[in-house]
Recover the amino acids of this structure.
């Protein structure tokens, strides 16, 4: 404060030390570390993990019986449940994405595990859809359908419920 | 301030809810119901029930016991490791039921596509792009014909029983698919699933095949050519009979037996009328007229009358006085009408109307065959697709033991052998399609004038379901000639022999069990369409060929043009069966049909013009030369001929080209090209540079001669590129140009209209220069490196149209004139679709071997989708499973063999010889009622 004229000049970095006496040191800035855990969420995380696993299982079961829209329903339920859970949106998005991938990925992988030509079938489906005939295209498109449903369902579920209660 | 913030927050929430709801609804609707032609991706890609489940169809079958409703007694299906099926059953019906089940297991998508195509229901699956095809097929009437055929088929007859059993087998498989919901992706992606199979569906597929082999638009092309080139020039360049040797398989003598009536019921002809010795010139009228409300009789066919051929000759002579363009004044709207119909045809999937000559089949006996028995070879040339048009199978039941290829959707074996006889088919190429200009009046809507009276057209209405769009309505008017194909410019109807109900299946079933030529020939008497050359060999050492089917005749008019529909030019009948082209045990012990004109010029009936895709005879000439050159032939000798890529046209023309180039000023590159041509053996091998030079030269030569005329006379090529353009596929132009080059090098046609006078040598030199310039651009480099494989390839398209599911393109030899034919230009899409050789040893036991490009399964994920390509491309054959016993051995190479000496054992050893890979029964299904 007393040596303002030195600001911006050589050695000015030391100006901090020229602060007025009696002012306490500020804590040094810490790097930003995103946290996926809202400290205010309710219930044990393990319980929520179990619920996510159940959600993925329900998606898989729905796929097996032809209920392709189950990921949407799970997404809606997750959005509503978050009114209680109070998880951050990014946590929910990430969780639903993983649930959809697992929920539809397991039934996709199951026939291949039993010796059926899933990769070749994926190429055929891509070709018939007029897409580049690569297996990963169909796998990606399939999982994208599940993910899109789950996330849109999450959006709807969150929109229909009040803001999550904190604490 | 706070209430305002609260209101703002509430408004944001409302907007958020509305947005989320709308997006959710849109997403779910689009995923669940699709949008226009976008499939409903939600159910389609559901991992548990959607298209992914088609992976199960990509697995190879495993041995198991299956229960099939409708099966009377247990049956067995066994598969070789290559997928060739053998069915053993306790009765014919059970065998056909099992065949239906097996074909549906491996070819359900193909079967459904084909029946949809024929029934005009393709748009229901494929969307708006297929509406034009559906409209055409519904107009043409394959479905109407099939229903008539089924109505005429006694349910207790062998054909009726076979059709019912076959449909039951297909439906048994459909039931399992419905239960498991493991549909082929072709269905689960669009969410359109196949309905139950009916006998009419099978008969529609028979109609689709007939259309592919028999329906042409040649008269419309003639009309457009006459309008631009003039009648005289058109008939000179597209003559009734092409100049040059045609190598007919039936050289005569011939009999004029008058005109036989057309039978319009789908029933088999009675034995009396079927006998070849009976002249069927009765007064029998067309007993039913499904295509018209007006009576159509052939009452004037009581005696042998002056034949159409005679009439036709007179008309041609008379036409010399006709001035070019007179047709226009007579039929002013015809070009518009022709263009409208040709546009309809161009909207069809590729290969749905007859475009190319199809197939080789030859036979030899006596001293021409080792051991003195009989040997038969057949290779039908068709659009080469994946899956193939064929499904190979052997059928066994008491009284039935037959092996060969079936058509998915139809019971029975179309080409193959039993223990006593073998047969193969080639298309006869005769004219089977006539177009009529109906006389109509604005004062009489829905009416037409015929035989002195105004008559009402019969009207049929159809609804065409379109995936993603509203259904379309179609009204089809029917005259006495057939369906009205257009009213644009003129009302034009079509009289097509494929629309005459034909008991083809009943005939085939009789052939499948025939044991001698008498039974074979008697059965063929009922065959009506498509007209086919049936080539025959038997265990007694006899060989024969019969062009079975209807050859329509008119008493008046030019059938190669659209004719007036007022009655005088109607189809009066057909060539009596006793007078159709045929040969039995020819003196030189060989016969060959390669779609060449089957008869010589003295044949007393009209069968079509040079533009009817009769092969110019180059393939037939090659085959006859080979067969007559060899004695004591074995299967390897026949296999070598099937693989021949020797070009007979090149053999005729290249020496004349070299003569024309002698003394000409040539560039160094042209000199090198001449050197290559001098050393060329006229073989269209993929590595041959001479083949490239020849093919490019011939294309440029044809263009150099005719293109100036086309341009000056404004031939409307865009109306029908295949039928009107100068280029590959215009066999008439090839033939007349070859004849001029051989015998008439001063023909005025060499001089372009209004241009300097030229002769053949001048044009050849110019065309050669053009060809060399083009080859220097592509493929480039030195002439010796211009291999044919760089310019020519072969491609097998997927029936689904998906490019990624094709096979090829890959460099390939052959061209349209070689025995191993390749049609379609630089990238060939048609050629040998099945190669079969069947021989008899002294013991009278048939041994056959065959191969076709592709595989038994239509599922691209299956190991049996394209597993036979390797053997087919290498010239190897597989033993044909014999009904009741499973063939042993794998692929055996028989190519490259010559016609060396050998005894009976040589024939057997060749055709049954095993290779590597094993072909025994690896998997079997036990079928239980």
């Amino acid at each position: 404060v007393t040596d303002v004229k030195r600001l911006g000049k050589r050695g000015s970095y030391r100006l901090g030390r020229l602060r007025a006496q009696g002012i306490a040191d500020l804590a040094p800035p810490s790097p930003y570390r995103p946290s996926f855990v809202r400290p205010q969420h309710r219930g044990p995380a393990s319980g929520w993990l179990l619920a996510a696993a159940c959600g993925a299982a329900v998606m898989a079961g729905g796929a097996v019986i032809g209920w392709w829209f189950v990921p949407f329903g799970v997404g809606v339920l997750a959005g509503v449940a978050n009114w209680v859970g109070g998880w951050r949106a990014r946590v929910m998005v990430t969780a639903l994405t993983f649930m959809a991938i697992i929920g539809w990925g397991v039934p996709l992988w199951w026939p291949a595990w039993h010796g059926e030509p899933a990769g070749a079938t994926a190429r055929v489906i891509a070709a018939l859809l007029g897409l580049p005939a690569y297996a990963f295209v169909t796998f990606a498109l399939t999982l994208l359908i599940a993910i899109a449903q789950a996330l849109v369902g999450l959006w709807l579920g969150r929109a229909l419920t009040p803001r999550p209660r904190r604490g | 301030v706070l209430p305002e913030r609260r209101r703002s927050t509430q408004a944001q929430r409302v907007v958020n809810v509305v947005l989320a709801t709308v997006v959710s609804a849109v997403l779910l609707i689009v995923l669940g119901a699709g949008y226009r032609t976008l499939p409903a991706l939600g159910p389609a890609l559901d991992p548990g029930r959607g298209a992914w489940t088609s992976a199960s169809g990509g697995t190879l079958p495993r041995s198991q016991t299956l229960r099939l409703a409708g099966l009377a007694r247990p049956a067995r299906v066994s598969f070789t490791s290559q997928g060739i099926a053998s069915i053993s059953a306790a009765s014919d019906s059970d065998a056909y039921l099992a065949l239906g089940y097996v074909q549906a297991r491996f070819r359900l998508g193909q079967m459904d596509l084909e029946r949809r195509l024929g029934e005009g229901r393709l748009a229901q699956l494929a969307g708006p792009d297929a509406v034009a095809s559906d409209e055409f097929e519904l107009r043409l009437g394959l479905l109407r014909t099939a229903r008539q055929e089924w109505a005429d088929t006694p349910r207790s007859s062998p054909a009726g029983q076979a059709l019912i059993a076959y449909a039951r087998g297909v439906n048994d498989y459909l039931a399992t698919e419905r239960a498991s919901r493991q549909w082929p992706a072709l269905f689960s992606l669009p969410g359109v699933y196949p309905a139950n199979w009916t006998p009419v569906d099978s008969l529609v597929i028979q109609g689709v095949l007939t259309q592919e082999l028999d329906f042409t638009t040649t008269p419309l092309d003639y009309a457009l050519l006459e309008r631009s080139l003039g009648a005289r020039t058109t008939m000179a360049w597209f003559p009734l009979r092409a100049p040059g040797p045609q190598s007919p398989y039936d050289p005569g003598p011939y009999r004029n037996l008058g005109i036989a009536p057309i039978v319009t019921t789908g029933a088999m002809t009675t034995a009396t009328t079927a006998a070849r010795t009976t002249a069927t010139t009765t007064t029998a009228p067309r007993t039913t007229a499904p295509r018209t409300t007006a009576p159509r009789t052939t009452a004037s066919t009581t005696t042998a009358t002056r034949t159409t051929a005679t009439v036709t000759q007179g008309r041609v002579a008379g036409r010399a006085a006709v001035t070019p363009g007179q047709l226009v004044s007579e039929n002013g709207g015809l070009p518009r009408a022709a263009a409208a119909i040709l546009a309809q045809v161009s909207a069809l999937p590729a290969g749905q109307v007859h475009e190319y000559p199809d197939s080789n089949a030859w036979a030899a006996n006596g001293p021409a065959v080792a051991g003195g028995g009989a040997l038969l070879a057949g290779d039908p040339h068709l659009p080469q697709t994946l899956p193939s048009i064929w499904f190979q199978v052997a059928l066994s039941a008491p009284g039935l033991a037959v092996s060969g290829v079936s058509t998915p959707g139809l019971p029975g074996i179309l080409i193959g052998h039993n223990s006593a006889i073998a047969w193969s088919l080639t298309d006869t190429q005769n004219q089977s399609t006539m177009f009529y200009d109906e006389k109509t009046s604005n004062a009489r809507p829905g009416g037409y004038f015929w035989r002195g009276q105004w008559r009402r057209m019969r009207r049929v209405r159809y609804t065409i379901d379109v995936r993603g769009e509203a259904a379309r309505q179609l009204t089809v008017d029917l005259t006495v000639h057939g369906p009205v194909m257009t009213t644009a410019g003129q009302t034009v109807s079509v009289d097509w022999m494929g629309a005459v109900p034909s008991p083809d299946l009943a005939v085939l079933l009789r052939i499948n069990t025939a044991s001698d030529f008498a039974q074979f020939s008697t059965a063929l008497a009922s065959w009506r369409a498509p007209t086919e050359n049936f080539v025959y060999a038997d265990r007694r050492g006899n060989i024969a060929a019969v062009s079975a089917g209807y050859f329509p005749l008119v008493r008046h008019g030019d059938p190669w043009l659209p004719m007036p529909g007022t009655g005088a030019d109607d189809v009066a009948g057909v060539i009596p069966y006793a007078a159709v082209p045929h040969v039995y045990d020819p003196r030189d012990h060989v016969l060959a049909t390669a779609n060449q004109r089957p008869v010589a010029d003295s044949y007393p009936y009209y069968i079509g013009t040079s533009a009817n895709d009769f092969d110019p005879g180059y393939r037939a000439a090659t085959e006859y030369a080979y067969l007559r050159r060899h004695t004591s032939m074995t299967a390897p000798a026949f296999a070598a001929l099937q693989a021949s890529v020797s070009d007979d046209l090149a053999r005729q023309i290249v020496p004349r080209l070299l003569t024309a180039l002698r003394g000409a000023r040539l560039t160094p590159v042209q000199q090198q090209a001449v050197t290559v041509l001098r050393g060329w053996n006229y073989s269209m091998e993929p590595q041959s540079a001479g083949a490239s030079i020849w093919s490019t030269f011939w294309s440029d030569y044809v263009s150099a001669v005719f293109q100036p005329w086309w341009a000056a006379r404004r031939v409307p090529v865009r109306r029908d590129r295949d039928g009107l353009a100068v280029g590959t596929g215009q066999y008439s132009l090839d033939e007349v140009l070859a004849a001029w080059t051989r015998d008439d090098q001063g023909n005025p046609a060499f001089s372009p209209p209004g241009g300097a006078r030229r002769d053949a040598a001048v044009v050849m030199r110019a065309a050669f220069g053009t060809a060399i310039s083009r080859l220097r651009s592509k493929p480039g480099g030195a002439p010796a490196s211009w291999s044919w494989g760089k310019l020519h390839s072969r491609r097998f398209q997927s029936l689904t149209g998906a490019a990624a599911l094709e096979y090829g393109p890959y460099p390939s030899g052959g061209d349209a004139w070689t025995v191993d034919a390749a049609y379609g230009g630089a990238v060939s899409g048609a050629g040998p679709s099945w190669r079969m050789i069947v021989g008899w040893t002294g013991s009278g036991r048939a041994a056959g071997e065959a191969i076709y490009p592709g595989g038994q399964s239509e599922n691209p994920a299956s190991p049996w989708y394209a597993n036979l390509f390797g053997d087919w491309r290498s010239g190897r054959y597989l033993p044909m499973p014999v009904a009741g016993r499973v063939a042993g051995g794998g692929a055996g190479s028989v190519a490259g063999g010559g016609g060396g000496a050998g005894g009976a054992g040589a024939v057997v050893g060749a055709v049954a010889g095993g290779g590597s890979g094993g072909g025994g029964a690896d998997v079997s299904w036990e079928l239980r009622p």
